[in-house]
Amino acid sequence: MLTVKDLQQKGNMKVLCPDVLPDREITGCYCGDLLSWVMSRASEGDAWLTVMGNINAVGVAVLADCACIVLTENAAFDDNALQRAKENGVAVLQTEKNSFETAVLVSELLKG
Amino acid sequence: MENIKLHYDVDSNDFSCAGEASGKIKKALKDLGFDASLIRNVAIAVYEGEINMVIHAEGGVIDAEISPEKVTVVLKDKGPGIPDIEQAMTEGFSTAPENVRALGFGAGMGLPNIKKYSDTMHIDTEIGVGTTITLTFNF
Ligand SMILES: Nc1ncnc2c1ncn2[C@@H]1O[C@H](COP(=O)(O)OP(=O)(O)O)[C@@H](O)[C@H]1O
Ligand SMILES: [Mg+2]
Fold first, then answer.
1. Which residue of A91, B5, B75, B104 has the smallest Cβ count within 10 Å?
2. What's the pTM value of the predicted model, to 2 decimals?
3. Residue B8 and residue B20: Cα distance in Å, rounded?
4. Cβ pair A55:B117 closer than 8 A
């Protein structure tokens, strides 16, 4: 089983929120920046890889029930977004790798 | 169970509030113990409707009614109306301005998503008067 915490540690990612990462399981992965697209195609439990770090991205992660948001290429996460993520208990990680490299990592970790 | 009625105002041009109504409806359905996939369908459809009100129609109101058989959601705005519904329903069609696209919206997937995730969808629109979208979700 791969948890959000495992991904953060193995991917050497920065934790933006929350202070204590949940043991929530990651069951898949989705990459995309167009919010409507992500909302209708991402699955519950996905690690969502994106460069879209605004408040609406948090809304989409909540509605789609993603396990976490991973901001790739060190994409910025604005203050409004951070506030909303805290309120909704959304885990947000940040990595310097791009979405492709991160997706490959998630894939390897999911295979165990 | 008596029908539960919920009402939300959606502010114009306030992207930070967009998602509030869908989030609250989602929570209400969760508290009532509804099936997760039904909740997700309702939440996605309402979110898209909410965003459309903010982007295209200067805000509006959302009413939801939860009965033992179904959830009915009415999204009502006094925006410009939709000139060509068939075109608007086409995946990828969007009149969203560039600044809105930069936020990740304007994929032209909103109305198609609403249709996909609801059991019935009815659009009532008049140019210069507004748009009312009525949705039902069966259990
Ligand atoms: N409430 C509304 N009032 C006026 N026009 C609307 C409304 N909702 C949608 N539209 C029109 O239909 C188009 C398609 O909507 P949608 O599928 O949600 O895509 P998007 O919002 O990404 O543009 C919009 O670009 C807009 O022209
Ligand atoms: Mg839309």
1. B5
2. 0.88
3. 9
4. no
